[in-house]
């Protein structure tokens, strides 16, 4: 039998371990892109051979137009998850994305961590962005990606209440900080090929902007995009998120 002191220590250690497990569980549910614990999200269906290109943190007046031109050369439609505060400043560019047939998605107004935000803050971030975008493109915004992938149950509930499908991913690398386009594309190729072996499509995230500043250098990401298009155009089918929306 444990002494009273030893029993107290054992209980304290047990409580600390339980708290640690709970914190780890929350972090997994709130941040891991494959987790569906805090609500279902569109990731990628069991359709090996299909790829969806998605871009976050734009629009970027320096680099988004180059992506539009590259995608047009390959006849590929992508999804651009835009920050409302940048979209407000780049209305012509937002309209150009929509007119080119790309999906225009909601990425919040100011890129906060929505797993730590109050419900009213989440609602305002999403509603203000959708209202701004819809005034420009004259159609509903149907897709939402949370900044950092961070969410809690109310995040996805509010997005769905506004008519949007939450979207995460299964192929991403740190292209926002990697100066080598070759390393960006090589890491994504490894993820795409792994998804293929598992029998899944790939929902690819690259960044055409930065939540820190408008006009950030995204040259490596743009070059890596063209490298992926060149590599997979003959063997895979690039599809817009609309093609997968029934899976969410």
Please report the number of helical segments: 8
Q: Given this structure, which CATH class is correct?
A: Alpha Beta
General form: globular
Question: What does the radius of gyration come to?
Answer: 20 Å
Helix content: 40-55%
The share of residues in extended strands comes to 5-15%
Unreliable runs: 9-23
In CATH terms, the superfamily is: Glycoside hydrolase/deacetylase
Strand count, sense and barrel status of the largest sheet are: 6 strands, parallel
Could you give the order of the helices and strands? HEHEHHEHEHEEHEHE
Number of strands: 8
Overall structural class, as computed from helix and strand content, comes to alpha/beta
CATH topology: TIM Barrel
The overall pLDDT average reads: 90
CATH architecture label: Alpha-Beta Barrel
Straight-line N-to-C gap? 53 Å
Q: How many structural domains are formed by the residues?
A: 1
Description of the structure:
With 248 residues, the chain is an alpha/beta fold. The chain has one domain: Alpha-Beta Barrel (TIM Barrel), CATH 3.20.20. Helices cover 44% and strands 12% of the residues. The strands form two sheets. Strands 1, 2, 3, 6, 7 and 8 form a six-stranded parallel β-sheet that branches. It has a two-stranded parallel ribbon with strand order 4-5. The N and C termini lie far apart (53 Å). The relative contact order is 0.20.
